[in-house]
């Protein structure tokens, strides 16, 4: 194979907040924002698997978190039913395999930050029954389970509730996500975890110094525990300088492979620009200057994936490009989804 064809390379993205954008537009009267914008983007990008996180916006923190979470999960079910010939929500490795065989885009439901769980571990069981298969303990802020990276100065580890929650997620078969978790919380989670965990949208601090990125020590723990890192394409996490481009992102790919190995690196692009245009409150507490929202040039939305795959191929070869684009994440999830 001398030329990388997007027709033969499945792309898997571990993080896209499109659910927020779709819900906000539907609340404003748009009938089908997923079908009008996001579905063509995913198809143009060659996406075979898309993780859909539910993130709690600032105005819903507290008692409104679970209600908002349920509405967003129902939003995903709604457009999956509306576009059943193109997409399907998957809950097991077998269902993921069938979706790939059928040529439908597999959608995996996730929770970004455990605000909807509150102080009741049993809510994890409810979310599991609703199809959630991945969950992180925090966004940038503090939850009852742990401190997010914006609270890193506290040095806080997991709370007792956080430890119990990790154990319950593992019992259920829910993949534990460490993106956004404070560094002390990360290492505490690594101590108590019994199953491999992942970082759904985190890049490399050795390449760009933002606190949302993972240190080489953290990446090393992921490698030692059989975990996975999906790299974030959000501009401030990609480069310490202005106007990062695709090659800067490939720097993270190359560095991560050097630390965790080529089989444990994938994409968690966090395409926020198109979401932020619609969902203003999501930017609160994002740990960046809010204006303007900085995207990575040439890697701003799913339709840009073919250019990224070609850039990885030029630097690291065809096999690595295919693995990072999608095969690695698909294989990791297929192995860990029950």
Main traits of this protein?
43% helix; 338 residues; alpha/beta; TIM Barrel; 12% strand
Strand content: 5-15%
Radius of gyration: 18 Å
Residue share in helices? 40-55%
- Structural class call reads alpha/beta
| Name of the CATH homologous superfamily | Metal-dependent hydrolases
**Largest β-sheet summary:** 6 strands, parallel
The CATH architecture name reads Alpha-Beta Barrel
Mean pLDDT: 93
Form type: globular
- Alpha plus pi helix count: 13
Strands, total number: 9
* Straight-line distance between termini: 34 Å
The helix-strand sequence is EHHEHEHEHEHEHEHEHHEHHH
Number of domains in the coordinates?
1
Top-tier CATH class:
Alpha Beta
CATH topology category name: TIM Barrel
- The low-pLDDT segments are 1-7
Q: Secondary-structure blueprint of this entry?
A:
Blueprint: E1 11-13, H1 18-27, H2 33-44, E2 47-55, H3 64-82, E3 87-89, H4 93-102, E4 105-112, H5 122-129, E5 132-136, H6 160-172, E6 175-177, H7 183-192, E7 198-199, H8 216-224, E8 228-231, H9 235-238, H10 246-260, E9 265-267, H11 273-276, H12 305-316, H13 318-336
Parallel strand pairs: 1-2, 2-4, 3-4, 4-5, 5-6, 7-8, 8-9
